[in-house]
Design brief:
alpha+beta, 135 residues, globular
Length: 135
Protein backbone atom coordinates (compact mmCIF):
# COMPACT_ATOMS: atom_id res chain seq x y z
CA UNK A 1 0.00 0.00 0.00
CA UNK A 2 2.85 2.44 0.71
CA UNK A 3 4.14 2.57 -2.89
CA UNK A 4 0.59 3.43 -3.91
CA UNK A 5 0.65 6.19 -1.28
CA UNK A 6 3.90 7.53 -2.77
CA UNK A 7 2.25 7.67 -6.19
CA UNK A 8 -0.79 9.49 -4.76
CA UNK A 9 1.46 12.10 -3.13
CA UNK A 10 3.49 12.42 -6.34
CA UNK A 11 0.26 13.01 -8.30
CA UNK A 12 -0.76 15.73 -5.83
CA UNK A 13 2.57 17.48 -6.41
CA UNK A 14 2.08 17.21 -10.17
CA UNK A 15 -1.32 18.88 -9.68
CA UNK A 16 0.40 21.65 -7.66
CA UNK A 17 2.93 22.20 -10.44
CA UNK A 18 0.00 22.61 -12.90
CA UNK A 19 -1.92 24.90 -10.56
CA UNK A 20 -4.73 22.37 -10.19
CA UNK A 21 -5.89 23.28 -6.68
CA UNK A 22 -9.15 21.39 -7.19
CA UNK A 23 -7.23 18.12 -7.59
CA UNK A 24 -5.08 18.91 -4.56
CA UNK A 25 -8.08 19.55 -2.34
CA UNK A 26 -9.75 16.40 -3.66
CA UNK A 27 -6.66 14.54 -2.39
CA UNK A 28 -6.86 16.30 0.99
CA UNK A 29 -9.43 14.74 3.29
CA UNK A 30 -12.02 17.35 4.40
CA UNK A 31 -10.76 16.88 7.98
CA UNK A 32 -7.08 17.22 7.07
CA UNK A 33 -4.67 18.50 9.71
CA UNK A 34 -1.79 20.66 8.39
CA UNK A 35 0.87 20.88 11.10
CA UNK A 36 3.44 23.68 10.76
CA UNK A 37 4.62 23.45 14.39
CA UNK A 38 7.84 21.64 13.43
CA UNK A 39 8.80 24.30 10.86
CA UNK A 40 10.51 27.64 11.31
CA UNK A 41 7.52 29.55 9.95
CA UNK A 42 7.26 32.35 12.50
CA UNK A 43 3.67 33.27 13.27
CA UNK A 44 2.50 30.64 10.76
CA UNK A 45 3.95 27.85 12.94
CA UNK A 46 0.54 26.54 13.89
CA UNK A 47 -1.86 23.69 13.21
CA UNK A 48 -4.49 24.26 10.51
CA UNK A 49 -7.67 22.18 10.30
CA UNK A 50 -9.74 21.20 7.29
CA UNK A 51 -9.76 22.61 3.78
CA UNK A 52 -10.50 26.12 5.09
CA UNK A 53 -7.52 25.97 7.44
CA UNK A 54 -5.16 24.82 4.68
CA UNK A 55 -6.46 27.57 2.38
CA UNK A 56 -5.90 30.13 5.15
CA UNK A 57 -2.33 28.91 5.63
CA UNK A 58 -1.61 29.02 1.90
CA UNK A 59 -3.05 32.55 1.56
CA UNK A 60 -0.92 33.81 4.43
CA UNK A 61 2.22 31.94 3.34
CA UNK A 62 1.98 33.11 -0.27
CA UNK A 63 0.94 36.71 0.48
CA UNK A 64 4.50 38.17 0.48
CA UNK A 65 5.38 36.56 -2.86
CA UNK A 66 4.90 37.95 -6.36
CA UNK A 67 5.78 34.49 -7.62
CA UNK A 68 6.40 31.31 -5.66
CA UNK A 69 7.48 27.75 -6.31
CA UNK A 70 7.73 24.59 -4.23
CA UNK A 71 9.23 21.56 -5.97
CA UNK A 72 9.59 18.01 -4.68
CA UNK A 73 13.10 16.57 -4.93
CA UNK A 74 12.61 13.17 -3.30
CA UNK A 75 9.74 10.91 -2.24
CA UNK A 76 10.50 8.46 0.57
CA UNK A 77 8.30 5.45 1.26
CA UNK A 78 8.19 5.31 5.06
CA UNK A 79 5.67 2.48 5.35
CA UNK A 80 2.81 4.22 7.14
CA UNK A 81 3.77 7.64 5.74
CA UNK A 82 5.37 9.36 2.78
CA UNK A 83 8.19 11.85 3.32
CA UNK A 84 8.82 14.45 0.63
CA UNK A 85 11.98 16.56 0.44
CA UNK A 86 11.19 19.94 -1.11
CA UNK A 87 12.81 23.15 -2.17
CA UNK A 88 11.02 26.44 -2.41
CA UNK A 89 11.56 30.03 -3.36
CA UNK A 90 10.11 32.95 -5.16
CA UNK A 91 10.17 36.67 -5.77
CA UNK A 92 9.13 39.11 -3.06
CA UNK A 93 6.19 41.42 -3.88
CA UNK A 94 7.68 44.47 -2.23
CA UNK A 95 11.39 43.83 -2.65
CA UNK A 96 11.37 42.20 -6.08
CA UNK A 97 14.20 40.02 -4.77
CA UNK A 98 14.44 36.36 -5.81
CA UNK A 99 14.96 33.99 -2.89
CA UNK A 100 15.56 30.29 -2.56
CA UNK A 101 14.95 28.93 0.91
CA UNK A 102 16.62 25.91 2.50
CA UNK A 103 15.01 22.54 1.80
CA UNK A 104 12.18 21.32 3.95
CA UNK A 105 10.31 18.06 4.44
CA UNK A 106 6.63 17.17 4.48
CA UNK A 107 5.32 14.00 6.11
CA UNK A 108 2.06 12.78 4.56
CA UNK A 109 -0.22 10.45 6.44
CA UNK A 110 -2.93 8.91 4.29
CA UNK A 111 -6.15 7.03 4.89
CA UNK A 112 -8.45 5.75 2.13
CA UNK A 113 -6.20 7.24 -0.57
CA UNK A 114 -6.45 10.77 0.88
CA UNK A 115 -4.09 12.91 2.95
CA UNK A 116 -5.44 13.19 6.49
CA UNK A 117 -2.36 14.86 8.00
CA UNK A 118 0.63 16.75 6.66
CA UNK A 119 3.49 17.67 8.99
CA UNK A 120 6.09 20.17 7.82
CA UNK A 121 9.69 19.98 9.08
CA UNK A 122 12.72 22.17 8.48
CA UNK A 123 15.00 19.49 9.88
CA UNK A 124 15.51 16.25 7.95
CA UNK A 125 16.39 14.12 10.98
CA UNK A 126 13.21 15.26 12.80
CA UNK A 127 11.09 14.36 9.76
CA UNK A 128 12.72 10.95 9.49
CA UNK A 129 12.38 10.35 13.23
CA UNK A 130 8.65 11.23 13.04
CA UNK A 131 8.12 8.28 10.69
CA UNK A 132 10.46 5.84 12.45
CA UNK A 133 13.44 6.15 10.10
CA UNK A 134 17.02 6.59 11.31
CA UNK A 135 18.31 10.21 11.27
Amino acid sequence: MSQEDVELVRAAWEAWEHGDMEAIFEFYDPTIVWDQTHADAGELSAVYHGHDGVRQFLREWLAPFESYYACPEEFIDAGEAVVVRLRQGGRGKQSGVDVEMPPYWQVYRLRNRRAVRIEVYTNQSEARKAVGLAG
